[in-house]
């Protein structure tokens, strides 16, 4: 009967749950899958989430379908391990998130009016989340910001939390002034202090840069991802122009590559927006 389920392409989530159960079976499962635990699988979960984001950034919807499946598998994997340890089950995970979504949207599933501004709905959402944290004995303003988040994203979230309780610069110009101060301290550290102290000052500068992003309405992790993509595109353009000259980057020098970089930038600016 179980094999019928595994071979039924239309069986949906029940098929995937059974596949994972079989993979983890201590007697007949896959040795690699049997050996895994929450900690060993967590890096794969993070990686799959980034691959979903990458497919979205490239507007590759066929790829996104596959990546969403990979990410779903991660949830199923953790749920199976949770069931084996007696912590939770896939059904309890689904019930938990369903209850949370209903509770956090009283204007959709309850009696509250939907006639609210986006700002008011955001404020209501944060109030509900704050009440949830209080129920978990998370009384501090920064409690519950996941340690495993990418550092720039976590900095952004920590600063948002602090700002809600009034710990924030009132104006963007204050943040820019702080960036100037931190940059000067980094230069001083580079010239006079240890590598550990240089790293600390560099972290301080990144933290304030993330804060500037928040004040400007820019999510720093997303902005840096886009810049990484732009850098790759432009550097590949430099390599293509060098190849047309019969050269590689190793055969070139900084002056030549810098000139080609500027040419690639100008070509991008001249390209029609819909091109």
UniProtKB/TrEMBL annotation:
Which CDD domains does this chain map to? Answer: NTP-PPase_MazG_Cterm, NTP-PPase_MazG_Nterm
**Domain named NTP pyrophosphohydrolase MazG-like: which ranges?**
36-109, 175-235
Keywords, sorted A to Z? Hydrolase
Source species, domain of life:
Bacteria
E.C. no: 3.6.1.8
GO molecular function terms noted in the UniProt entry: ATP diphosphatase activity
Q: Name one GO biological process term.
A: response to stress
According to its UniProt record, which reaction does this protein catalyse? ATP + H2O = AMP + diphosphate + H(+)
NCBIfam families per record: mazG (TIGR00444), PRK09562.1 (NF007113)
Query: What protein family is recorded?
Result: Belongs to the nucleoside triphosphate pyrophosphohydrolase family.
What name appears for this protein in its UniProt entry?
Nucleoside triphosphate pyrophosphohydrolase
């Amino acid at each position: 009967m179980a094999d019928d389920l595994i071979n039924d392409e239309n069986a949906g989530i029940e098929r995937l749950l059974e596949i994972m159960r079989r993979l983890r079976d201590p007697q007949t499962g896959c040795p690699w899958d049997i050996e895994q635990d929450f900690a060993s699988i967590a890096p794969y979960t993070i990686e799959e989430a980034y691959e979903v984001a990458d497919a979205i950034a490239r507007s590759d919807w066929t790829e996104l379908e596959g990546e969403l499946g990979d990410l779903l598998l991660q949830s199923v994997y953790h749920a199976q391990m949770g069931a084996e340890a007696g912590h939770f089950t896939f059904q309890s995970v689904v019930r938990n998130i369903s209850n949370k979504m209903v509770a956090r949207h009283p204007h959709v599933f309850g009696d509250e009016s939907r006639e609210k501004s986006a700002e008011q709905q955001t404020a209501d959402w944060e109030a509900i989340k704050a009440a949830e944290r209080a129920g978990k004995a998370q009384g501090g303003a920064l409690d519950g910001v996941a340690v495993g988040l990418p550092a720039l994203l976590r900095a952004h979230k920590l600063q948002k939390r602090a700002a809600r309780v009034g710990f924030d610069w009132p104006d963007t110009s204050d943040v820019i002034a702080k960036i100037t101060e931190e940059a000067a301290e980094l230069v001083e550290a580079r010239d006079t202090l240890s590598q550990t102290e240089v790293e600390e000052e560099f972290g301080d500068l990144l933290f304030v840069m993330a804060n500037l992003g928040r004040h400007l309405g820019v999510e720093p992790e997303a902005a840096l991802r886009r810049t990484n993509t732009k850098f790759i595109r432009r550097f590949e353009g430099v390599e293509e122009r060098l190849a047309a000259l019969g050269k590689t980057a190793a055969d070139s020098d900084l002056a030549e590559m810098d000139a080609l970089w500027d040419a690639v930038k100008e070509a991008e600016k001249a390209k029609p927006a819909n091109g």
